[in-house]
Amino acid sequence: MIILFGLVTLTGCAKSTDATSADTSQTTSSASDAGTVLTKADQQISHQKIAAAQATLATVKTPSAAVKNLATGLKYYERAADALAKNQLSAAKGYFTTLMNYQGTTDATFIAARTKLDHQYQQVKVANGYYNTARDELSMHELSSAKRNIDKLDNMSAVHPVIKQLQQKALSMKQAIMNYEASQSTSTGSTSSTVTSTSSSSSDSTSTTKTNSTSSSSVDSSSSSASSDSTATSSATSTSNSSSSSLTDAQALKQFKQSAGITFASGDQFEITSRTSSYYQIKVTYATSSSDDSDTSTSDTYRYYPTSGNVTTEDPTTGDFE
User: Fold this and answer.
1) What is the per-residue pLDDT across 247-272, written as a single tens digit (0 to 9) for each?
2) Are the C-beta atoms of residues 287 and 299 closer than 8 Å to each other?
3) Which stretches are tagged as biased composition: Polar residues (predicted)?
4) Which of 52, 89, 168, 274 could form a disulfide with 281 if both were Cys (CB 3.0 to 4.6 A apart)?
5) Mean pLDDT over residues 270-282, rounded?
6) In terms of residue numbers, what domain contains 110?
């Protein structure tokens, strides 16, 4: 009887030991799988294959915190990258703020990719500033200034495809300027003259020549880049504050758009809500908004300082302008 009881006890211990070993083995296997998946995802991220990295992370049945946090970071990255690729800087602003403030992962490969994307974003904003300024100057026939900004854009390193696209569009504007200057240098005009003879008592005749000359010139308008792609609607609200600046509302809005470093959509609406001796406060209502309202808003409020050319944006939470 005692021997039988001992055998039963030993059998129970063996089963318990086997179960514990199985659990330990499963935990070790899961950790190993997660490590393998993270390594593979990092390789894909380093080659800018973000969608592939997301798919790799999704294969983990029981994801660890590291896997979940990296997946969240890639979601923010994808949104920002997509808006930047479409040159939708008004939408990209909110996405990049979320992406750069995300501290959920310490994955070195992700952080390096995020830093690179942010650098591209900053350069795209600069490129848009040059392009928009050149376009507006061309529409106002300020050819020398337009050429300078086109040259600045052309000299930029195309670290993102959007910059290359803007450079190619700017070439059309530059060609239009060259065509105009060529037409000016070769234009001879047309001249017509009429001679009228009159008689005097001394029988002398005097010929009077009337000369009319006309010259025509035109700038090749085949490029849509030479036309303004944004419509500014300014509705000024009168206040007791009066600006010491001699700028008109149209001039202030033009300079604001040049300094903001943003390509606004054609349907965006601009409203000057306040003026002081140092700045114009401008509300921009965007024609379209992102489907994710938590990341972007349909409008932003800016302050433009004509003297320095600086533009600040209102933080909707604190009301401060940064």
Assistant:
1) 888 899 999 998 888 888 888 899 99
2) no
3) 307-316
4) 274
5) 90
6) 33-119
d(CA 310, CA 308): 5
Bridge partners (DSSP) of residue 159 are: none
Report if residue 91 sits inside a domain. yes
Residues 143 and 131: beta-carbon distance below 8 Å:
no
Contact 266, 229 (CB under 8 A): yes
The per-residue pLDDT for 125 is 93
CB 163 within 8 A of CB 127: yes
Task: Locate 143 and state its tokens.
Answer: 């050819």
Both tokens of 192, joined, read: 């017509």
From 84, 101, 119, the end of a domain falls on: 119
At 124, the pLDDT band (50, 70, 90 cuts) reads very high
Q: Is 278 inside any structural domain?
A: yes
Last residue of a domain, one of 119, 151, 176: 119
Report the b/e string of 172-203 with b at 16+ CB within 10 A.
ebbebbeebeeeeeeeeeeeeeeeeeeeeeee
Q: Give me the pLDDT at residue 231, please.
A: 35
pLDDT value, residue 263 = 83
- Domain count for the chain, please give it: 2
Other residues' Cβ atoms within 10 Å of the Cβ of residue 148: 15
Q: Is pTM, for the whole model, over 0.85? A: no
The pLDDT mean for the chain works out to 75
Considering only residues 295 and 116, tell me which one the structure prediction assigns the higher pLDDT. 116
Please check whether residue 259 lies inside any domain of the structure.
yes
Mean of pLDDT values over 64-68:
92
Using only C-alpha atoms, what is the Rg of the chain? Answer: 34
Which tokens sit at 126? 């600069």
* Residue at 258 is within a domain: yes
Query: Edge-to-edge strands of the sheet including 310-313?
Result: 269-275, 280-285, 299-305, 310-313
